[in-house]
Automatic annotation (TrEMBL):
InterPro entries: MetI-like, MetI-like_sf. Keywords: Cell membrane, Membrane, Transmembrane, Transmembrane helix, Transport. One of its GO terms (cellular component) is plasma membrane. It is a multi-pass membrane protein. This is ABC transmembrane type-1 domain-containing protein. Residues 70-263 form the ABC transmembrane type-1 domain. It comes from the Bacteria. It comes from Hungatella hathewayi WAL-18680. Its main location: membrane. The keyword ATP-binding does not apply. It is found in: Cell membrane.
Length: 278
């Protein structure tokens, strides 16, 4: 029996190792080619660079206007995620504490909204934003807030159902108003799901290309993904300058990759706890 269990365990680990290698291969490919010349990339794209040349990263950072683009991306991400967290948490809490049919219907509406593909509403929404004069950074933040709301409300809803009502009743008896009740008593109790919501939405917004392309376009306040797309030096008439493309993509990927590596435990814990509480 022990031999059979060990064989099954070995097979499982072998499969998981293959999946990990398959998943990490694009990152390896991107990383090693970000320090090579065009000639070296074409000759040996899979091998480590003969010399680790960081000048390619510096040149790529200059081409995509790194500081300005990163500042715009950070601003959009922070404001949009803050908007999503505040609105979704308050909405989910009110729906859980309100035992009316309207709150149940509203929760079903938020749940159903997750099933609507963005492509089906893309054109009318972009047309509406243009008519309202919101094809700018502010309009982009509003769009992110709207699209991120349904999933976040759904995640918070399961957590708030597990918060004991007696805690809120005790706070009200002690004289807490509704703002103190939520922000000082209730909201701190849902830190795991809040961490998960912040990380997942930040990753989505940071890496997103389509919405910034549709709303901002080639304006001055471009995100990193847009700067990468519109950089003329990254596309050549007679070929692609891979010695600039690879490091430019790496620069855009590194920040959110580092955040994910350090905070992946929070993501897993939040999702697992949400599944149990929901």
């Amino acid at each position: 029996m022990n031999g059979k269990k060990n064989a099954v365990k070995f097979g499982l680990y072998a499969v998981l190792t293959l999946i990990a290698v398959y998943t990490l291969f694009p990152i390896y490919f991107l990383f090693v080619n970000s320090f090579k010349s065009q000639k070296e990339i074409v000759a040996a794209p899979m091998s480590l660079p003969a010399a680790w040349n960081f000048d390619y990263l510096k040149n790529a950072a200059a081409q995509i206007h790194l500081l300005e683009s990163a500042a715009n991306t950070i601003f959009i991400t922070v404001v949009a995620v803050t908007l999503i967290v505040l609105v979704a948490s308050v909405t989910a809490w009110m729906m859980v504490r309100s035992k009316s049919k309207a709150s149940n219907v509203l929760f079903l509406v938020f749940t159903a909204a997750m099933l609507i593909p963005f492509q089906s509403v893309m054109y009318p929404l972009v047309s509406l934003m243009e008519r309202l004069g919101l094809k700018n950074t502010f309009g982009l933040i509003l769009m992110y807030g709207g699209f991120g709301l349904s999933m976040t409300v759904f995640m918070y809803h399961g957590f708030f159902k597990s918060v004991p009502l007696s805690l809120e009743e005790a706070a009200v008896i002690d004289g807490a108003n509704i703002f103190q009740l939520f922000f000082h008593i209730v909201f701190p109790l849902v830190k795991p799901i809040t961490a998960t919501v912040i990380i997942t939405n930040a990753m989505w917004i940071w890496n997103d290309y389509l919405l910034p392309f549709l709303i901002i376009g080639n304006n001055k306040s471009k995100t990193l993904t847009l700067s990468l797309y519109y950089a003329k030096s990254l596309s050549g008439q007679y070929g692609n300058p891979w010695e600039l493309i690879f490091p430019a993509v790496l620069i855009c990927v590194i920040p959110i990759l580092v955040i994910f590596i350090f905070l992946q435990k929070n993501i897993i814990e939040g999702i697992a706890a949400g599944a149990v509480k929901g």
